[in-house]
Amino acid sequence: MGAPVILSGMCKCVFGAAPTPLMVLPVDMVLAKNMPPATIMDHIPFLNIMPFGTCMNMGNPMVAAATAAALGILTPMPCIPITSSPWLPVKPTVLVKNKPMLDSTSMLMCQWGGVIQVTFPGVSLCTL
Questions:
Q1: What mean pLDDT is reported for the chain?
Q2: Distance between CA 34 and CA 6 in Å, rounded?
Q3: Most CB atoms closer than 10 Å: which of 38, 66, 83, 89?
Q4: 94-117 b/e (C-beta count within 10 Å ≥ 16 → b)
C-alpha cells in the first residue's frame, strides 16, 4: 500500500504539460496528518481534478482538430480533464466514511485516454 494522499498532494497526467494539486474538500470531517484525506471519490473535474496545463493526446478532439488544422504537426490544446469514474485503488484497505482512501499508487483515467497518477501524496502543515 502506498502513502495516503491528503489535501496538499499533487498529481500528473501522462499527456498533460504540468502537474496540478489534488483538491480535497473537508466534507468527511476526518483528518490524516492534520489535513483532509482524499478518497477514490475525489475525481470530479474542476472540483478535485484541476487542468494539467495543455493536453498532448490525439484522443482529445480539440488536440486532433488543432493538429489537423496545423497539417499534422502536434498542437497541444488547453487541458479539460474528463474523469467520470472514481480513482482505481490498488489495495482498498483503509476506509474514510465507508469510501476507500486514496493512496499514492492509485490511478485515474481521463476520457481522452490519459492516465492520472499521484506524484506527491502531500505533507502535513503542522510541525511536531
A1: 88
A2: 9
A3: 38
A4: bebeebbbbbbbbebbbebebebe
CA nearest 48: which of 89, 9, 104, 79? 9
The answer to whether residues 16 and 77 touch, using CB atoms and an 8 Å cutoff, is no
Cell of 76: 497541444
Q: What does the pLDDT look like over 75-121, one tens digit per residue?
A: 999 999 999 999 997 667 788 888 888 889 999 999 999 999 999 98
Sequence-ordered list of residues with C-beta below 8 angstroms from that of 21, at least 6 positions apart, any chain: 8, 9, 10, 11, 50
pLDDT digits (tens, 9 = 90+) for 66-82: 999 999 999 999 999 99
> Where residue 7 falls among pLDDT bands split at 50, 70, 90?
confident
* Whole-angstrom Cα Rg for the chain: 16
Torsion of CA 20, 25, 28, 30, to 10 degrees: 70
